DNA sequence: ACTCCACAGGAATTGAGGGGTG
DNA sequence: CACCCCTCAATTCCTGTGGAGT
């Protein structure tokens, strides 16, 4: 059997389960979609719609609903004799400045793009308003996806909703749709921005088990060969996912991994057992992806903590992590960062869910300090670390190398305490 | 109720790296 | 070319603080 066989007896067209796949029909989420469509429908009467703020966790259908509804809007608006331009920008990992440039480039021709750096902020803002004023359509819908990931909130969000009042925009009627994964984002906005940006709010709740079942069944029909899914499979995946995140994305990933597992083992049907493996696989991929986004220094820090964890000295305070991290960095020949930088990074790792942080205060004798421990199994982290290959080659064993380093570190750092045992 | 420890975490700053304009 | 702008990682400086011991 070749590596890329086409005659798979389990999977028919797995791409239906990929993130990149956009289905043309949308199952579930009817209420939200009605609300959404309704909010934009005033264009038919030539009235500028109110700005829309959409929120809900990842994988609950926000982006897909937006895409489908806006496609329909562009099409239907012809019947109403209105032209609508849609511009979509993802704000993930961008500052206001970057996002503004993305909007400009989105509106410009391919040959006329500007660079991400170099211009002063005022110039960039002016360019954006020029572009927006320059479009031919009567209405423009500007979708700001992942708006909560915008690095510095005020800039762009302050400019845009108020641009009309300030006289920066003329004929074009700009409507903003902000999409956020974070519920608290809205409350953190300045009242002024909040009231303009969130004129209409649409909340997408996490999917419930039953809804996930219909989504999975819908996709599975095209993705798998008929009749290969064990009866309990989809309900099982749906139930597990509903308890965890309620994300259709996650559920589909698990289903796909279960399918892979079944084909890999030449099974005839995809079973709940395969799904269990799938769940682990998805979790591992998640860690791997997030790990890939971390710097080498971040890997070093996690490695240090994983070793403490393996040694059974579970929550470790920053001071100790730092002392050991320093030795690791020297051993591997990397820069040694200052204590403050390490603290900052540890807190970032906690925010990303790699570590969990607890504050300890032992009063007069010791004051206050932070303790960290891994928020995942250290064995799993070690595997990913080896496969990732930043600190180690595939054939090396991080555990073995580290154990030795930790042991020698502990013996030089407190040899007074240790001497009484020898 | 007050003290006082050991550190947390914010602010300000720097320096390298990206790239603009005239 | 000289000079300017934005970003990002990291550093130093410094003020803030929770609660056991008194």
Helix content: 40-55%
| Mean pLDDT over the residues | 85
* Assembly type: single chain
| Molecular shape | globular
Termini separation: 61 Å
- Helix/strand order: HEHEHHEHEHHEHHHHHEHHEEHHH
Percent of sequence in beta strands: 5-15%
What is the SS-derived class? alpha/beta
**Biggest sheet descriptor:** 5 strands, parallel
Strands, count:
8
Radius of gyration: 26 Å
Q: How many helices in DSSP terms?
A: 17
Uncertain stretches: 416-422
Enumerate the strands of the largest sheet in spatial order, edge to edge or round the barrel.
2-3-4-1-5
Task: Please tell me about this protein's structure.
Helices cover 51% and strands 11% of the residues. With 422 residues, it is α/β, with parallel strands linked by helices. It has a five-stranded parallel beta sheet with strand order 2-3-4-1-5, with helices on both faces. Strand 7 and strand 8 form a beta hairpin. The chain is globular. The model is unreliable at 416-422 (pLDDT under 50). It binds a DNA duplex (22 and 22 nucleotides) through residues 95, 97-98, 114-121, 123, 295, 297, 317-319, 337-338, 340-341, 343-344, 347, 359, 361-370.
Spell out the key features of this protein.
single chain; 422 residues; five-stranded parallel sheet; 51% helix; DNA-binding
Question: Layout of helices and strands, plus pairs?
Answer:
Elements lengths: L29 H11 L11 E4 L6 H18 L4 E7 L5 H12 L13 H14 L4 E7 L8 H9 L10 E8 L4 H4 L2 H7 L2 E4 L5 H15 L9 H12 L3 H17 L7 H21 L3 H15 L5 E2 H15 L6 H13 L3 E7 L6 E7 L3 H11 L9 H16 L1 H5 L3
Helix pairs in contact: 1-2, 3-4, 3-5, 5-7, 8-9, 8-10, 9-10, 10-11, 11-15, 12-13, 12-15, 12-16
This protein binds a DNA duplex (22 and 22 nucleotides) through helix 14 and strand 8.
């Amino acid at each position: 059997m070749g590596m890329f066989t086409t005659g798979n007896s389990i999977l028919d067209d797995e791409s239906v389960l990929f993130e990149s796949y956009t289905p043309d029909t949308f199952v579930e989420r009817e209420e939200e979609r009605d609300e959404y469509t309704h909010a934009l429908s005033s264009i038919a009467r030539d009235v500028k719609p109110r700005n829309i703020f959409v929120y809900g966790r990842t994988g609950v259908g926000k982006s897909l609903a937006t895409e489908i509804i806006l496609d329909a809007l562009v099409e239907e608006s012809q019947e109403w004799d209105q032209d609508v331009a849609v511009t979509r920008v993802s704000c993930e990992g961008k500052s206001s400045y970057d996002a503004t440039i993305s909007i400009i480039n989105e509106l410009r021709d391919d040959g006329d793009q500007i660079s991400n750096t170099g211009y002063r902020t005022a110039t960039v803002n002016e360019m954006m308003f020029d572009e927006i004023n320059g479009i031919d359509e009567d209405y423009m819908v500007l979708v700001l996806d992942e708006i909560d990931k915008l690095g510095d909130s005020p800039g762009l969000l302050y400019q845009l909703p108020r641009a009309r009042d300030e006289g920066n925009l003329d004929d074009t009627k700009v409507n903003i749709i902000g999409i956020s994964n974070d519920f608290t984002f809205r409350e953190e906005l300045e009242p002024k921005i909040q009231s303009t940006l969130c004129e209409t709010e649409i909340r997408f709740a996490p999917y419930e088990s039953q809804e996930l079942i219909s989504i999975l069944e819908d996709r599975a029909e095209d993705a798998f060969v008929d009749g290969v899914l064990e009866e309990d499979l989809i309900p099982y995946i749906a139930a597990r996912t509903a308890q965890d995140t309620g994300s259709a994305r996650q559920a589909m990933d698990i289903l796909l991994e279960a399918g892979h597992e079944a084909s890999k083992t030449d099974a005839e049907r995809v079973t709940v057992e395969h799904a269990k493996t799938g769940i682990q696989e998805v979790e591992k991929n998640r860690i791997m992806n997030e790990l890939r986004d971390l710097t080498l220094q971040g890997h070093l820090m996690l490695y240090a903590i994983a070793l403490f964890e393996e040694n059974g000295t579970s929550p470790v305070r920053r001071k100790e992590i730092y002392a050991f991290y320093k030795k690791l960095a020297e051993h591997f020949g990397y820069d040694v960062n200052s204590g403050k930088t390490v603290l900052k990074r540890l807190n970032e790792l906690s925010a990303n869910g790699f570590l969990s942080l607890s504050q300890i205060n032992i009063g007069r004798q010791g004051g206050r300090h932070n303790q960290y421990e891994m928020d995942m199994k250290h064995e799993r982290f070690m595997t990913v670390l080896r496969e990732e290959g930043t600190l180690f080659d595939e054939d090396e064993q991080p555990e073995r190398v580290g154990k030795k380093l930790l042991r020698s570190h502990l013996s030089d750092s407190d040899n007074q305490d240790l001497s009484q045992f020898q």
